[in-house]
Design goal:
Length: 157
């Protein structure tokens, strides 16, 4: 599937978080949501990205934004990753990749000449009505949280 575009409804999902509790996008209606897809728990780029989100978390929380990370890792891996880095937001397990596919981020990748299927690092901002308000593809994990805050008009808050 293709990546949903700004103005389109965000694809609905229902995924377990790091505690095995089901999180549904429809249950978050009325709140802005940041949904960031990342390749794999506890890898260098993903660790930098989630730690930057952690360090900036108070800005998201103060704005009433629900911040959610999604990867294809299992619940147990998410629980360890979240605990290891003291992450204050939930990580959702998309083990079957259905949600990653619905958001168009499950794609052919290449590393060291090897081709494989995986998650393209992509973030979606979803407005309180459930529509996509921003799409960030190919993000740089080093600066993404600050880039996102700036795009949402919250930089330096």
């Amino acid at each position: 599937m293709s990546v949903p575009q700004v103005g389109e409804p965000a694809p609905e999902f229902e995924l377990p978080n790091e505690h095995g509790q089901v999180v549904r996008l429809s249950d978050l209606r009325g709140k802005p949501v940041i949904l960031f897809f990342y390749p794999k728990d506890d890898t260098p780029g993903c660790t930098v990205e989630v730690c930057n989100f952690r360090d900036d978390y108070s800005q998201y929380k103060n704005a009433g934004i629900v911040l959610l990370g999604i990867s294809a890792d299992p619940v147990r891996s998410h629980a360890k990753f979240r605990s290891k880095f003291d992450l204050p937001f939930s990580l959702l397990a998309d083990e079957g990749t259905e949600v990653s596919q619905a958001y168009g981020v499950w794609a052919q990748k290449k590393l060291f000449g090897r081709e494989y299927m995986g998650i393209k690092r992509t973030t979606f901002a979803i407005d309180p009505q459930g529509r996509i308000s921003h799409v960030f593809e190919g993000v740089d994990p080093q600066v993404h949280s600050q880039e996102l805050l700036a795009a949402l008009g919250m930089a330096g808050d």
